[in-house]
Amino acid sequence: MPDISAASAGRPSRTVATRRGALVLLMLMGLNLRPFLTSVGPVLDIVRNDIGLGFRAAAMLTTLPFVLMGVVAGVGVGLARRFGEKTTLTAALLLLAAGCASRIWASDSASLITGAGIAGAGVAVIQALMPGLAKRWFPERVPLAMGLYSAALVGGGAFGAVASPWLAAHGGWHLALALWAVPALGTLALWLTSAPHGAAPIGAARIPLTRFFGNLRAWQLAAYFGLANSGYSSLVAWLPSFYRQIGMSPQTSGNLLAGMAVFQATGALAMPMLARHAQDRRCALWLTLTLQAAGFAGFAVLPALAPWLWVACAGLGLGGFFSLSLIVTLDHLTDAQRAGALAAFVQGVGFLIVATGPWLVGWLRDAGGSFATAWSMHLAVIVAMGALTAVFSPASYRRSMERV
Fold this sequence. Notes:
This protein is mainly α. It is built from 17 helices and no strands. It is globular and about 55 Å long.
């Protein structure tokens, strides 16, 4: 794929059109990556009652996709290197659409979990490739590109959460979970007709992901990304059920999750813009972690007092952290392909950690524990990540990657 950042003196309008097309595709890809997850939480109690899901089995609907986001990340980069990004992303969008569509026929936990796995595999490939694409397409505007991509990603999650209860009320939970195949197919059609030609392999085209296994900074970035984002996966899986438990209606609890996603989208775009002129992103990262801590403390101690305040804090913090942590990862290497490979490694390991969040909360609930204990656990993780933030000084970027 041609570098859309390069000037085309003879064809400026074509360059602008290519930039706009790339931005539209970047955002549409992001919009499709979360509705298949966030649509589940608001109707989870209905699904559990209908087919008899236990807490841990229900958690698998969120945990398995996040596991696959970790395991399949490296595979996706390898496939893009071998077959090209256009073919690889086409297959990934087909998997996402197929996994969502399969839910229209789901009648037991096995079929639901299988559909979640198929969709999750497609999402894993897409999001493993997107950071590298963003850095290559917009090398001078990485914070803006990643902010828009991240905002689209969590914005799609917001739409999934708010639409799911309404769809379930009018067409049943099968429709509420399966309908998300439609936007995936729409994005696939645009990708096939509008993707720039001559795509070059991305991600690990010149460096295998295994090169990062011996690099301490790569592991620090992966742990940082995974642990601080594990609160997101737990809230996506359990926030509506938590507030249903204290008396909220399905639609109101779903609106809370949707509201959190809206605040995430705001944070995902605003925080990179706040830090765009600073080489050192740590102050912005500490701000996002402080907001997360306030949100989880509110959920744990006084959930009914000001639920929208806690949701706003958690959402702004989680959204801002997601985009900033990926930007910091990309900042470590100037070459877009190598930076994309590092981002794929970080997401691969990180999403395996993210996947533990919903499962641990489900395990605590099945063992008789409370949601307050789970939220306190995430609060402790956030404090630890605040300490780890100190190591990500820009002066250390080049030194930490010298052997890669």
